[in-house]
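Narrative summary of target 7.
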Amino acid sequence: MTKPTSSNAERLKSGVAFEEIGPVEGNACRHFLIAVIPFGDSTLSKAVEDALEQRGGDALLNVTVTSSLYGFVPIYNVYSFTCTSVQGVAVRFKPSSPGVAENRTGTTSVAQQSQ
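Modeled conformation, tokenized:
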């Protein structure tokens, strides 16, 4: 799972090398006052961005997504909120240089250039 504002999905499909940064968790919540005044953002993309910002990652692997809804004084619905949470392993793409090919294990080999 990648940031929605980037072309990282194409990079993953092309087999670019990456390094695991570690486990991360991100949250995004939307609040409601009197059931008609919403504020905040509980989208999945916001939760992914929150998780990746923690360690400067480019994508998430092994992602778990949860969604929850909480209400207080439910008869009158005075205040409620919904949250989306993601957990996963953050990865960072390794930079590639022209003329150098990297494989998925991170080892580097010089590509043959045609003359």
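The radius of gyration is 20 Å.
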